[in-house]
Amino acid sequence: MSNLYGDYNQKIDYVFKIVLIGDSAVGKSQLLSRFAKNEFSLDSKATIGVEFQTKTVALDHKTVKAQIWDTAGQERYRAVTSAYYRGAVGAMLVYDMTKRQSFDHMATWLDELRGHADKNIVIMLIGNKCDLGSLRAVPTEDAQEFAERENLFFMETSALEATNVDTAFQTVLTEIYRFFSKKSLAANNGTDNGNSGIKGIKIVVPNQEHDTGRKGGCCRSS
Ligand code: GTP
Ligand code: MG
User: Fold this and answer.
1) 128 close to ligand 1 (CB < 6 Angstrom)
2) Residue of 21, 29, 106, 158 to mutate, ligand 1, most atoms within 8 A of C-beta
3) Residues lining ligand 2 (ion), CB within 5 A?
4) Residues 31/94, Cβ–Cβ less than 8 Å
């Protein structure tokens, strides 16, 4: 049961719904599992319908509960779209950097997202499986260019090696938090003219974080 209190009975200040989207087998469920439980499985089953997991994080002395929704990339297993996107304030658009097609489909996923979600939703493009650098089929620059054009955040991650996974979710949560705190400030000042949407882009350079402690060529473009 969800209520105002988290695992340790601390008060939850915000609940942010984040949705994961992208083709089947790009690693959405494993990214979620890595972030929420620090677990990873190589023989992950395709998701059927919708699942979600939560993780409570501290942001700026507030307690934020991330409620992350995960659905099937396979069309035949997907749940009703509009219900999935309803109330989402963040989205992770995930492709597999070793599968060009999964990147080429990002525009279609983005269209679907923009068609159903709130206009101020924070969106991050994620190139997953950067541990498989030698099989790379999507240059970092291509993804960066797409992200800049579409005003998205961008990171390359590995759910397997836990590279950039926390950073990606934390970045989205922080941006959402910034938006809501700015909005309540503006409302208090009576200056919220409805134009306080999220503007600008931030490209996060890959390989900034490597939280397994392993050094390697992950996420480098070459
Ligand atoms: P659907 O539920 O069908 O939409 O797929 P999904 O996007 O949830 O993919 P899932 O997380 O089930 O991962 C698919 C396969 O990719 C599994 O075999 C995972 O173990 C593997 N995988 C996921 N993330 C990574 C990663 O970062 N690196 C590598 N090498 N494999 C990964
Ligand atoms: Mg899945």
Assistant:
1) yes
2) 29
3) 28-29, 47
4) yes
Low-confidence ranges of the chain (pLDDT < 50): 1-3, 191-217, 220-222
What pLDDT, on the 0 to 100 scale, is given for residue 190? 56
1 contact partners, CB below 8 Å, separation of at least 6: none
Strand partners, 14: 64
User: Does the beta carbon of 187 sit less than 6 angstroms from any atom of ligand 1?
Assistant: no
Residue type, 66: A
Nearest bound ligand to the CA of residue 52? 2
List Cβ<8 Å contacts ≥24 apart for 200-203. 200/151, 201/147, 201/148, 201/151, 201/152, 201/153, 202/153, 202/171, 203/144, 203/147, 203/148, 203/153, 203/154
> Among the CATH numbers 2.60.40.10, 3.40.50.720, 3.40.30.10, 3.40.50.300, which is that of 14-189?
3.40.50.300
Cα 5 to ligand 2 centre (Å): 28
pLDDT of 9-28, one tens digit each?
Answer: 678 999 999 999 999 999 99
Phi-psi region of 207 (alpha: psi -120 to 50; beta: other; left: phi over 0): left
